[in-house]
Amino acid sequence: MSLPLIERALQFDNRTAIVTLNAEYSYRQLLNSSARAAAGLLNGRNDLTEARVAFLTPPGFEYAAVQWGIWRAGGIAVPLAVSHPAPELEYVIADSDAEIVVAHPDFAGKLRPVAHKLHRRFVTTPELLSATASRQLPQVEPQRRAMIVYTSGTTGKPKGVVSTHQNIQAQVTAMVSAWGWSADDRILHVLPLHHVHGIVNVLTTPLWVGASCFILPKFNAEQVWQIFETGQITAFMAVPTIYARLIAAWDAALPERRQAMSAACVQMRLMVSGSAALPVSVLEKWRQISGHTLLERYGMTEIGMGLSNPLRGERVPGHVGRPMPGVELRLVDEAGLPVDAPNTPGEIQVRGPGVFREYWQRPQATAQAFQDGWFRTGDTALRRPDGVYRILGRNSVDIIKTGGFKVSALEIEEVLRTHPAIRECAVVGVPDPEWGERVCAALVLETGASLAAEGLRGWAKERLAPYKVPSEILVLDDLPRNAMGKVTKPALKKMNFSDT
């Protein structure tokens, strides 16, 4: 049987599927090109039968054509990151045991040596997309594995998260239902295409409904504003850092230009923020600029989208709403028992058709990730009496155990951002013999501002008291370091404010 994504695309035919800075491509062109890619990958075989195909292609039409080609040939797509150096690409190719490596000409020089070193078949995108399409492609059942996306979490080597075609379809249809997707939508895509956010939310979902996806090769704030001002875009999804940069570009614009920029946002129907906690200050500023209260949601590679504020109705700042359609969600305590009382922290556990199948070739890690059929996310949240959830943070990074209390680094960061001298901050826990862990804040100050540690401690003491935080806030020292004296990966990750 043909995959539903392909069957649906046949109905959209000459509608515009993908737009780039240089061209527009119809669904018919996407189907034809992906059929040629599938034939090129098969290379005389009847079916790839879940062979892994690692591919490195910049955002654009070729990316979608290769991805669909892998799926239509019966393979498992393993998207690579354009930003990763050769050793990281080699790790993913080797760990996934990719049989074929596909590279856009821009990246052939980087990937060809890796493919040859690992003795894998290497092919470029022009070679694939110029192959002769086969009249007979394999029948691909929805329960087959479709994709392996690598996620590093906070510790250890990256793991390959395996999703089936059914998993992806469940994630997509949940978003279509919750966020009102239709063929009339036109979304601007500025996200990396080796994460679920960019692959499933912003590319696969619009293509499922016959909408158009305008793909930029990389994020550029001025380009985004110019495209917004054309009035053609109906939806936009991004991470908080991108919204912060768009705000900075708006602030730098002349007053008359600002009016046009804001007016362009007002006519759009949906703006979503995800992949990281959205500072309330960013939400409020964006609302002033655009007229939109950003729709915050919660998801991860293993589950797709789990929680969402409503498309229509009240969106609560700093909260991520209620479970998505088809998603079951519960909170559990440290003993693994359900937490039923409202406003009581617990670990988020999820089950439903969108939950991933397994970690690639890691049966023990897969088994440990589930409790009685529920996926253990490793994130802590609390549920208000009205059923709306608030994320307190990642157990391994954001939940700090200090003085017998569990405190949320994300909540402390929200408090610190209200200080007039602080532009951005990251909070981590550091070992301490008295407190267990002590709160450490790394700060980026506003231009020209200065701030002494003692002054911040005094300012923060009363404001942080509700969060059970000791007043001895540490500023820019005693960060968690390894034996070589380097800041540890979890702390560094939180402090990388420019990462999108």
Strand and helix layout:
Layout: H1 4-12, E1 16-19, E2 24-26, H2 27-42, E3 52-56, H3 61-72, E4 76-79, H4 86-95, E5 100-103, H5 105-117, E6 121-124, H6 125-129, E7 145-151, E8 159-164, H7 165-179, E9 186-189, H8 196-209, E10 212-215, H9 221-229, E11 235-238, H10 240-252, H11 255-266, E12 270-273, H12 280-290, E13 295-300, E14 304-308, E15 322-323, E16 328-332, E17 346-351, E18 358-359, H13 363-368, E19 370-371, E20 374-383, E21 389-394, E22 399-402, E23 405-408, H14 409-416, E24 422-432, E25 436-445, H15 453-464, E26 474-475, H16 489-495
Parallel strand pairs: 1-10, 3-4, 3-5, 5-6, 9-10, 9-11, 11-12, 12-13, 25-26
Antiparallel strand pairs: 1-2, 7-8, 8-18, 13-14, 14-15, 16-17, 17-20, 19-20, 20-21, 22-23, 24-25
Structure write-up:
- The structure is a single chain.
- Helix content is 34%, strand content 26%.
- By secondary structure, it is of the alpha/beta class.
- Among the domains are: 4-141, Rossmann fold; 399-495, ANL, C-terminal domain (GMP Synthetase, Chain A, domain 3, 2-Layer Sandwich), CATH 3.30.300.
- The strands form 6 sheets. The protein has a 9-stranded mixed beta sheet. Strands 16, 17, 19, 20 and 21 form a 5-stranded antiparallel beta sheet that branches. A 4-stranded parallel beta sheet has the order 4-3-5-6.
- Helix 15 links the parallel strand 25 (436-445) and strand 26 (474-475).
- Helix 4 packs across helix 5 (105-117), helix 7 crosses helix 8 (196-209) and helix 10 crosses helix 12.
- The longest helix has 16 residues, at 27-42.
